[in-house]
Write a structure and sequence with these properties.
three-stranded antiparallel β-sheet, BPL_LPL_catalytic, ligase activity, 248 residues, 6 helices, aa-tRNA-synth_II/BPL/LPL
Length: 248
Amino acid sequence: MPVDVRSVGRRELDLPPLFSLHTLRESGDAFASAQALAPDRGAGTLVWARRFDLVEFAVVLEPEEPLALARLVLYPAMSALADAIAVHCPPEKPLAFGWPDALHFDDGLVGGGRLAWPAEAREDEAPPWLVFGVMLRAAALGAGEPGTWRIGTTLEETGFFEGVDTGAIVESFARHLMANLHEWQEAGAKAAARRWLERFPGEEGAQHGIDANGDLIVRCDGEEERRAFRAALAEPSWLDPARGEPWL
């Protein structure tokens, strides 16, 4: 049953009170726009690009922690994204993360999240802002047939519940993000990492963990491998740089 991509332009979003909506036309870049707005608009600014084929939005955060710890917000934010999808998708369809920032739905890549901060921000100081951006492929408008893609899929192709529009996903994300950030503040980053790991299939036969700095730890056959979190954020794993959209 298809996502109602046509409803993108028909209404405004119903967001929690702490969020301030800034909308863009179809050609806008939500992630870049949120970074440009962050110094003046501040925390809670949510930029939404009214795309028909993509769920594209970004939110501004103002962390109190030093940057080295603050960027771990990617984990509760990704969990909020998956929670938002889970509200609307058929329960038998699996949702899984690819480390650290990709979202797979029904074994196909639909997109993911990414994180930005000011270039001059110091690791040992709280950054003035962070931006968490999301891009998910809702429909295959102008991108060929999903069945011919190598790794990608769309929400429409994988059977979203009828009547769910892309704006509803953004609204759900905002509510889940508030809940997950509250849990992060109360229970700490380890709890947020554990929630993320619940949706991470990882490698067969291996044990996986998230270190205090966000690194992925993989233990297998008595050996331990560390995958650097900060380096992984430099190039989103789900983003085709040539097309500026999720890999097909």
